[in-house]
Design a protein that fits this description.
The complex is a heterotrimer of chains A (413), B (339) and C (292).
Chain A (H helix, E strand, L loop, with lengths): L1 H31 L9 E7 L6 H20 L8 E7 L4 H14 L4 E3 L4 H13 L4 E3 L5 H5 L5 E3 L10 H9 L8 E7 L4 H14 L3 E8 L7 H9 L4 E4 L4 H12 L6 E4 L9 H5 L8 E4 L10 H12 L8 H20 L4 H8 L4 E3 L2 E3 L12 E6 L2 E6 L18
Parallel strand pairs in A: 1-2, 1-3, 3-4, 4-5, 6-7, 6-8, 8-9
Antiparallel strand pairs in A: 10-13, 11-12, 13-14
Helix pairs in contact in A: 2-11, 2-12, 3-4, 8-9, 12-13
Chain B lengths: L5 H20 L3 H24 L10 H18 L6 H4 L1 H19 L4 H21 L1 H4 L5 E2 L12 H23 L1 H11 L1 H6 L4 H27 L1 E2 L1 H4 L2 H14 L6 H20 L4 H16 L4 H11 L22
Antiparallel strand pairs in B: 1-2
Chain C lengths: L1 H31 L6 H19 L3 H24 L7 H24 L14 E4 L2 E4 H23 L1 H11 L1 H6 L4 H26 L7 H15 L4 H21 L2 H18 L14
Antiparallel strand pairs in C: 1-2
Classes of the chains: A alpha/beta (413), B mainly alpha (339), C mainly alpha (292).
């Protein structure tokens, strides 16, 4: 009996000691890697999802970050300091994202941190950054929750909060003669933190315009089969289908409509239809015509540095301009903001970044950005439409490359 | 049966002291964060073990209770307004108690099935709770999630309150497991694990024992959820009621040795830091998943009953008199637990 | 009424595919007491292989089933030999959950390396064609998927009923001890049974890839559904799995149009719990009193 117990105690003790030893070792070594001065590289820590639910957009953001780092280093760095990115994986898990930013800030003592992908990871991560006085320029956390925290270190580097996605569409409809506007609308909505607020906002505005709601349904994220939902929606015969969608469900709605031979006069999908690379091969290229969506970036936009971004991207990663994910542009824009701030103030410390960015206008590939005190951008999103097999920005007119067309032509089959 | 041996006391004391001293020895915040998650999983694995290890009823739905605990904390905070600072910690024991009571009818229903069916059916418990979190919008705010105020703790020691709260729940779980395993309930559970029909035939009140174990286990499992909600500050249905929480707890209990007192903790001490560190340092390559799976397969095939029972077998094989008579394969099942 | 019938048709077609997916899972449990949590990952692997055969070699996904199934059978036999046979029989049921979970993660990791995490969809030319039968829209792919599933299930049934090997499997399912006393080599039956189960998984994967876009992470959703299906049907019962899958498909579709999709899946779980209250062994399962 004694042998057993003793062996067991030894094991436990050894493990506990090992953990403590590792902990102490890690703690002491961290102090050596820290100090930063001019001439030393500017180390920027980023946690991105390289596995799990957000790994796809996480990868796009990583391409954008790396592209910016390469580009700025070729120009001589930020204030003469070469940029070095330290990118770690959070496996789409908020616990891991929190650990990662803690580690980046307190162990690796990175100079700056940039944001992860998705509001779900951005919100808790921004808190960690805020606790240590780090600025938090982030490309992809545009949900209301991020701004509701009232953190002053957050800057969402897109033209508008995610919830405004439907605004340009409603604006466009209001310019149409009454006879061409939709009279009835259906709102299939994914139950997630982004899609639902978009639909609620757009629906209130559309109802104010006199568009009658004939169908409204929230469906869960794990809905495996969209066809019954489409069947019910089709039975209501809406002129407009305004979908609060993400990706799989957007494809499901389009495929379901094609299979059930229903062609609405307007089809707006908040997300999923705005990916030039993905959408056509999920629904068939000939079924995309006339579908509307919203976006924050577009390869042909005449925004600051956009041409350069596109050509650098193609040179580094290959492909064609319309396969560039907007997520890469968003991440690239984060870097641009930092560069502009450094140029303006001559400093790249967190306090200066936080105090500087709350005022002024900051030109990026995403457009000219400005923020309110809690980091919500004050601009507007773009409405895009599939025309002749290509996705083009059609609204607001100031940035549009083509005029929107309506009603939507029949399905290609 | 229940006796406090000097060795047992020393082990418990040493562990408590190590746990209490850790934040004083290690101040780096990122290590404290990893420590919080490690102690959290140690608590979860230990309380899961109370049902899964002692009675053999493998619940894969315990994450439901973790989620209920997390939501209870956020709901109490949002709808009742208990205030910030240290106050949200005060409701944690009440949440544990409440979940344990609420689990009684659940236990009565789910414990009608056993074996693999029980394991799978408990998964549906998890999905039911997750769906409720999505759909009871007025209470849970649905997919939009809930947030809790940032506590005004000083930056340098920000993690400590959360760490000590987790540690308290963990030590409470270990103590509960020890009391159960050395008492009458423990004997009943071990009898159920070995052969439920025979236990029933012997006049053991199997249903009462199972339901009690289920409820205590559920209540203990909910408390780390409540603390986690406060630490994380944000809860969403898919993260609060996450199958990976159960899977993590189960893997740790299996790795360390289910049915033992210290096995689940050992599993957590090994797996959580390894996982957090690997994802941080190696996550960039997809090899992380493959490596994790390979290591796990090797452990399962070489030590199917976990580290502590395997080590104990090793000890036994050097001591022929200690071997259970007439059982070549030496199952330590009836031999109780290491205390 | 039109809407309910339309929903029922759609649900039936989807349920047929789930029936095929679940058949292998319930078979593996019946033969070996193994709960194969990696069944979902194997289905996704099948979907990827079929996708690759289609995009690279223009092999129709339905044709690819014939190519993939024998290969998958061999893989299944190998997995059984290496990972599952070493498990002690008295603990196999529980340990198999964990071992196959690890296998699932491994498959996910390997698929992630080859295909990244971009969603893929197998889209043959007829993917969005649909027929209008008596005023109801029926997608050709779903109809064909349903037919293929039904055909494979029918073959499986015939094999179980009318071949020597099938009888050995059934004997093992009913009473492993008696079967081995009667000369059934349980190891061989187990290996072949698992091989067949993996073969059905890849066949189902080929079909799955046409119905919905997928990536390596899709297996989590799949396996949680499949597990509840085989519990509802009765673990180890092929007929039960088919009935439960069709029931799940139809009830979810009808509830989605009649009530709301957010509550539809909740009802499925509630029904599952109620059924188990009345029949703990599931719809067609044999009593689990005594040693499972």
């Amino acid at each position: 009996m004694n042998t057993r117990r003793n062996r067991f105690s030894v094991t436990v003790t050894v493990v506990v000691m090992a953990v403590i030893a590792a902990a102490c070792g890690g703690g002491s070594s961290s102090s050596s890697g820290g100090s930063s001065g001019s001439g030393k590289p500017l180390v920027i820590g980023i946690s991105l999802s390289q596995s799990g639910d957000f790994s796809d957009p996480g990868h796009a953001a990583m391409l954008g970050y790396q592209l910016w780092a390469d580009s700025v280093n070729k120009r001589g760095g930020v204030l003469g300091r070469q940029v070095k990115l330290k990118i770690v994986d959070d496996a789409s898990d908020p616990n891991q994202a929190v650990t990662n930013y803690q580690t980046l800030i307190t162990k690796d003592k990175v100079d700056l941190v940039f944001g992860p992908f998705s509001t779900l990871l951005t919100a808790p991560s921004a808190r960690v950054a805020s606790r240590y006085g780090y600025s938090f320029l982030e490309p992809a956390g545009g949900g209301q929750l991020v701004f509701d925290q009232k953190l002053h270190n957050v800057f969402f580097v897109q033209p508008a909060p995610t919830v405004n996605c439907g605004d340009p569409f409603v604006d466009y409809l209001s310019t149409l003669p009454a006879g061409q506007r939709p009279k009835t609308a259906a709102y299939p909505t994914l139950d997630d933190p982004f899609a639902t607020p978009i639909v609620e906002r757009a629906r209130a505005k559309l109802e104010a315009l006199g568009v009658k709601t004939v169908y409204s349904q929230v469906y869960p994220a794990e809905t495996a089969d969209m066809t019954p939902i489409v069947a019910k929606m089709v039975a209501a015969k809406p002129d407009l289908i305004f979908g609060g969608t993400q990706s799989l469900d957007a494809y499901g709605i389009v495929n379901g409509l094609v299979q059930q031979h229903y062609n609405p006069k307007f089809l707006f999908l908040s997300n999923g239809a705005n990916s030039a690379a993905e959408f056509p091969n999920k629904v068939g290229a000939n079924n995309t015509e006339g579908i509307l969506s919203c976006t924050d970036w577009f390869p042909e936009l005449k925004t600051a540095g956009n041409q350069q971004f596109v050509s650098e991207y193609l040179a580094k990663y290959g492909g064609t301009a319309d396969t560039i994910d907007g997520g890469s542009a968003e991440a690239y824009a984060v870097g641009q903001v930092l560069e502009a701030e450094a140029k303006k103030t001559g400093k790249v410390d967190n306090a200066t970044i936080i105090s500087t960015l709350h005022s002024g206008v900051w030109p990026t590939v995403e457009g000219d950005l400005s923020w309110d005190q809690y980091g919500a951008p004050k601009g507007s999103q773009l409405m895009t439409q599939w025309q002749s097999g290509k996705l083009v920005p059609v609204w607001p007119q100031a940035t549009a490359l083509a005029a929107p067309t309506s009603p939507k032509p029949p399905w290609g089959g | 049966m229940r006796r406090v041996t000097p060795a047992g006391l020393a082990r418990g004391g040493a562990l408590t002291a190590a746990g209490l001293a850790f934040p004083l020895l290690v101040t780096a915040p990122y290590l404290m964060t990893i420590a919080i998650f490690t102690v959290m999983y140690a608590a979860l694995a230990t309380s899961w073990n109370l049902l899964g290890g002692f009675s053999g009823y493998l619940s894969l739905g315990h994450a439901a209770f973790f989620g209920v605990g997390a939501y209870a904390e956020a709901i109490v905070f949002t709808h009742i307004g208990i205030g910030g600072g240290y106050r949200p910690f005060a409701v944690v024991p009440l949440i544990g108690l409440g979940v344990a009571v609420a689990a009684i009818p659940v236990a009565i229903v789910f414990l009608r099935v056993r074996g693999a069916t029980f394991a799978i059916v408990t998964i549906s418990l998890l999905f039911i709770v997750q769906l409720l979190a999505f759909n009871l919008r007025s209470l849970t705010n649905g997919a939009q999630g809930m947030s809790m105020a940032i506590p005004p703790f000083p930056v340098a020691t920000y993690e400590r309150p959360f760490y000590y709260a987790m540690l308290a729940v963990f030590l409470g779980s270990v103590l509960t497991c020890w009391i159960v395993s050395t008492g009458k309930l423990g004997l009943m559970l071990f009898a159920i694990r070995d052969d439920e029909d025979r236990a029933h035939g012997l006049g053991i009140r199997v249903t009462a024992a199972k339901v009690l174990a289920f409820c205590v286990s559920a209540g203990l499992f909910a408390m780390p959820g409540a603390i986690w909600a406060y630490y994380e500050g944000f809860i969403y249905p898919q993260f609060a009621v996450d199958p990976l929480v159960t899977i993590g707890a189960v893997l740790m209990a299996f790795l360390g040795g289910r049915g033992t007192i210290w096995g689940p903790m050992l599993g957590a001490l090994i797996l959580v830091p390894a996982q957090q560190y690997l994802a941080y340092s190696q996550g960039a390559s997809q090899l992380y998943l493959i490596g994790y799976s390979a290591v796990f397969l090797v452990i399962m095939l070489l030590m199917p009953r976990g580290i502590i029972p395997s080590l104990r077998d090793l000890a036994v094989s050097h001591n022929p008199f200690d071997r259970p008579a007439g059982d070549g394969e030496s199952k330590p099942r009836t031999s109780g637990v290491a205390t | 009424m039109h809407l309910i019938v339309q929903a029922a048709i759609l649900g039936l077609l989807t349920g047929g595919v789930y029936a095929l997916m679940a058949s292998g899972l319930t078979l593996a449990f019946g033969v070996m007491r193994v709960i194969n949590v990696s069944q979902g990952a194997m289905i996704v692997a099948g979907a990827y292989v079929s996708y690759t055969l289609f995009t690279q070699l223009q092999i129709d996904p339905f044709v690819s089933i014939v190519i993939m199934a024998p290969a998958a059978f061999v893989v299944g036999v190998a997995v059984q030999l290496v990972f599952l046979r070493p498990l002690r029989s008295d603990e196999r049921e529980e340990l198999s959950l964990l071992v196959t979970w690890a296998i699932a993660l491994g498959i996910e990791g390997i698929l992630g390396i080859f295909y990244q995490t971009t969603l893929r969809a197998t889209r043959p030319s007829y993917v969005n064609d649909s027929l209008t039968l008596f005023g109801y829209d029926v997608s050709v792919v779903r109809l064909a998927a349903f037919a293929a599933s039904a055909l494979i299930l029918a073959l499986l049934y015939l094999m179980l009923q009318h071949t020597r090997f099938g009888r050995a499997i059934r004997a093992t399912v009913q009473n492993p001890t008696a079967a081995s006393l009667l000369g059934v080599e349980s190891n061989r039956v187990g290996a072949y049974g698992f091989g067949i189960s993996v073969a059905t998984a890849t066949a189902a994967g080929a079909v799955f890839g046409m119905i919905t876009p997928f990536n390596a992470g899709s297996h989590y959703d799949l396996i949680s559904r499949l597990l509840t299906i085989i519990v509802l049907g009765g673990m180890g019962s092929l007929g039960g799995a088919v009935i439960a899958a069709l029931f799940m498909g139809m009830s979810e579709a009808i509830l989605a149009v009649e009530m709301s999709p957010t509550w539809a899946s909740l009802w499925f779980f509630v029904i599952l719990v109620l059924v188990l209250l009345i029949r703990p062994q599931g719809l067609l399962g044999t009593s689990e009193r005594g040693k499972l």
